[in-house]
Amino acid sequence: MxxxxxxxxxxxxxxxxxxxxxxxxxxxxIPEAFAAAAETAVAAIIVFSLFAGMFALLSxxxxxxxxxxxxxxxxxxxxxxxxLQPVADGIKMLTKEDVVPxxxxxxxxxLAPVLIVIPSILALGVLPYGREWVPVPATLGLLFFFAVGAxxxxxxxxxxxxxxxxFPLLGxxxxxxxxxxxxxxxxxxxxxVVMLSGTLSLPEIVEKxxxxxxxxxxxxxxxxxxxxxAGSIFFIAGIAEANRCPFDLPEGESEIVAxxxxxxxxxxxxxxxxxxxxxxxxxxxxxITLFLGGWQAPLPGLGFVPSYxxxxxxxxxxxxxxxxxxxxxxxxxxxxxxxxxxxxxxPVALLNLPSAAVWHYAGGGLMGWLACGPFLVLPYLAxxxxxxxKLAQSTRTYRxxx
Length: 402
Hints:
14 helices; two-stranded antiparallel ribbon; mainly alpha; 2 domains; 402 residues
């Protein structure tokens, strides 16, 4: 290990609690397996506590950002500048009555909001937040991330079916159709990274993006032709997967009320809310790991800053983009949403895979950009023209009584 990347006290600071627990147990003669399990449990508690706090803070920041865009004050009554609004929201959710419909399956109705939080927590555990900070090192971390993410669709269907009402069931089916459709381009965009990195280990993928191009440009995957396309597809599909505007169709108020969450109240509803935000954190963190160099510094000479600081600064920028898009774009229709996934995103993601192979065999650089151009630009133009023609044919004409 080079001196520039040698671990320091600040670099290993997030690991201090779990190491103290592990050393204390070993000194008491506890078997190594139990000590390692205790360290993993402490690491999981640290990650969950961190992102749970970020969830509470983001619920305030999002309303403040939207208020700023819409020229209104936003939350400003509870605490200085409304800083205690998340606390008030939490107290309100805990004290509200838990209403369960008569026709609902009470056990499944209770399990659904609990199960929707678990996949996000598990996914957050395998992400590398710093050079030394990987809560649960996993050789197949990327595969594990997508595998546990599949539990979200099951939880949503469970919530809709167990509510015993047609509106939650309809909302659940719409949500599952959306998530399955946009999981395909999401996984295909990540497949290009796996092809070029040659590994499914998330820390190794970050290490592959180390170094500099032209002495100052980070060697991140986003700064390659295939990485720019894959990163854009990943970001767009991530918006749909996280159920964010303009793809928040499962919660179409004018059509199906609150979707699969219609028959939930109180703390159960808050769990759905938390699961959605934790999923947003997980997807954003994965995108940073795959395309933005993870914890790598953005400029040379900044290695003295703890690596996890860079990771969370990048996370803050990506989350702000999600908020900005919500404040800017209106909600699309369901047919537009599905058509965009199947007729545009998936074909572009598939065409990006040979482009990544061409980049590899061309050796990168200017020759790689010139060789990848025909694989990306020409199909993009053709698909855009075809997609716009199909969209024009589906334009609806609304007639009003005179």
